[in-house]
Amino acid sequence: MEAHRICLLPGDGIGPEIIAEGVKVLNAVGAKHGVAFTCTEAAIGGCAIDEFGCALPDATLEAAKASDAVLLAAVGGPKWDTTDPTRPRPEQGLLGIRKGLELYTNLRPVQIFDALAGASTLKPEVIEGVDLMMVRELTGGVYFGRRERFYDEEGAGPHGAPGQRAYDTMEYREYEIDRIARQAFEAARRRRGKVTSVDKANVLESSRLWREVVHAVHDAEYQDVELEDILVDNCAMQLITRPADFDVMVTENMFGDILSDEAAQITGSLGMLASASLGDGVALYEPSHGSAPDIAGRGIANPLAQILSVEMMLRYSFDMHEGADDIRRAVTRVLDEGWRTGDIADADTPADKVVGTAAMGDLVVEHL
Ligand code: NAD
């Protein structure tokens, strides 16, 4: 029997609850298609800070590197919130594993499940047909650039005392833009053949390089794909006025962070959106939402984004497209039958049947 090694990173908050449902579904699909998945668990985020003093222990990165794919839930929570730059923070685990596995591409599909169309705050005619793929550069830009905080000699602080100053640097190298552009054009070829490249080329030098390189890659190898440029501020508006017009959207790290959350909200259900982070080796799959500390431990979290991240894992790491289609069909049918976790239930729809995290996982398995 074919076997794959999966590194599980439950993390914090609702993480352990939702990842259990992802594993349930993974094993059920494996049994159906004659593939075994061997799972090992490792610590990341706040729970790793508590146990090991840092958000990404070496053993976790090693376990991830030794696996065929990584399934992550979420990290973070108020317990570890701090503005003290010397204290460890849970997100360092995320940034560290992205860097450690060289995961330079983040894919976030944004699709509307018909049964949940009413959950969007946008008008039905605006969201009809939305099916877009956000391609976000993940290991460069301002999140990884030089940064510093120091006291300014010129005395901008209170009572003429030296005040603090801080800077962050947005930097991109040509090869970093080249490889993410290729991922976007390849994705577009598998979809509707259009790429929208988002930048701030009217102001930022790094954006002018971004635009130049994206066009060079396009003109040399992807002329069959339609390419358009859009400035990030305009894009933020267009994304909620005409979301169905976009196919693949590619952008740098911080713009992508912000725009992908905006795109997620088009669906109205953050608990439904999965993401894949890819490089040239082991890939990582996770829900788009955070650790939802406000509902952790209550058994009411929506596990569907985590389950749909398993769907992406089957597609992108294991070429198991039938298994992936099975998961999507099962989730669609569960929703069509009216089963909902609290976050996607509609008080005005009496047909909605509210269930907890584990029951939702069981329903998906039954429909497989
Ligand atoms: P969040 O996504 O955790 O929660 C936002 C809201 O959505 C909350 O009301 C929450 O209850 C709800 N929600 C999110 N996922 C849900 C699910 N699966 N089922 C039901 N409801 C769900 O964002 P936040 O509140 O801004 O952040 C909470 C913590 O998560 C912070 O510490 C933040 O740093 C962290 N975070 C982690 C990641 C990650 O691990 N990739 C991403 C974003 C935020």
Descriptive tags:
368 residues; alpha/beta; binds nicotinamide-adenine-dinucleotide; ten-stranded mixed sheet; two-stranded antiparallel sheet
Please tell me about this protein's structure.
The strands form three sheets. Strands 2-1-3-12-11-4-5-10-8-9 form a ten-stranded mixed sheet, with helices on both faces. Strand 1, helix 1 and strand 2 form a beta-alpha-beta unit. By secondary structure, the chain is α/β, with parallel strands linked by helices. It has helices at 15-33, 46-52, 58-65, 91-100, 124-127, 174-190, 205-221, 232-241, 253-267, 304-316, 321-336, 357-367; strands at residues 2-11, 35-41, 69-74, 105-111, 131-137, 147-152, 163-168, 194-199, 226-231, 248-251, 274-278, 283-287, 339-340, 353-354. Helices cover 40% and strands 21% of the residues. The chain has twelve helices and 14 strands. The protein is globular, with a radius of gyration of 21 Å. It binds nicotinamide-adenine-dinucleotide (NAD). Nicotinamide-adenine-dinucleotide is lined by residues 14, 74-77, 91, 94, 270-271, 286, 289-295, 301-302, 305, 343.
Uncertain spans: none
Q: Enumerate the strands of the largest sheet in spatial order, edge to edge or round the barrel.
A: 2-1-3-12-11-4-5-10-8-9
Largest sheet geometry = 10 strands, mixed
| Number of helices, counting only DSSP H or I runs of 4 residues or more | 12
Shape: globular
Fraction of residues in β-strands: 15-25%
Number of strands: 14
Secondary structure layout:
Blueprint: E1 2-11, H1 15-33, E2 35-41, H2 46-52, H3 58-65, E3 69-74, H4 91-100, E4 105-111, H5 124-127, E5 131-137, E6 147-152, E7 163-168, H6 174-190, E8 194-199, H7 205-221, E9 226-231, H8 232-241, E10 248-251, H9 253-267, E11 274-278, E12 283-287, H10 304-316, H11 321-336, E13 339-340, E14 353-354, H12 357-367
Parallel strand pairs: 1-2, 1-3, 3-12, 5-10, 8-9, 8-10, 13-14
Antiparallel strand pairs: 4-5, 4-11, 6-7, 11-12
Bound molecules: nicotinamide-adenine-dinucleotide.
